[in-house]
Amino acid sequence: MEIIKIFMKFGLVGASEVIVNILIYTALITLNVNYLVAATVAFLFAVSSNFYLNFIWTFKGKRKGKSVKKKYLHFIIISLLNFIINLSILKIAVEFLSGNELAYDIIKKYAGSNPDKIIKVIAQIIGIGIATFFNFFWNYFITFRE
């Protein structure tokens, strides 16, 4: 099916952007930037390059009658909605992992003396993963629909 092929391309583009996002996010966390601010900065860096790669490769030739400017606007709006989902999941996951004694102890065992920073990175990965599904379907049916 075409949607599966497109989703796989979307996933590859997304994976590259997750790496960019996590690298920027982790660097800022290491500098003791608030994790929500770090997530915001990482998002801003990743979103434009994500649009470009999806535009030229994943959804190449889709919705030809729609201007690039309009596609970009829709992509940004959808990305912002997904960012809100990501931040919500991030906050919930950080609070859950930090407040769950068993999870905290397991992470502390493997993370050493800095479990709080590791928890924040794990929570960001969870948030990105969940938001990815919403991001794909909204972009498939709104930004790049036929």
Topology at a glance:
Blueprint: H1 2-30, H2 35-58, H3 68-99, H4 101-111, H5 115-143
Helix pairs in contact: 1-2, 1-5, 2-3, 3-5, 4-5
Structural features, described:
This protein is an all-alpha fold and 146 residues long. The protein has one domain. The protein has five helices and no strands. It has helices spanning 2-30, 35-58, 68-99, 101-111, 115-143. Helix 1 (2-30) runs antiparallel to helix 5 (115-143), helix 3 (68-99) runs antiparallel to helix 5 and helix 4 (101-111) crosses helix 5. The longest helix is centred in the middle third of the chain and has 32 residues, at 68-99. The radius of gyration is 17 Å and the shape is elongated. It starts with a helix and ends with a helix. The model has no long low-confidence stretch (mean pLDDT 89).
Task: Write a short abstract of this structure.
This protein is mainly α and 146 residues long.
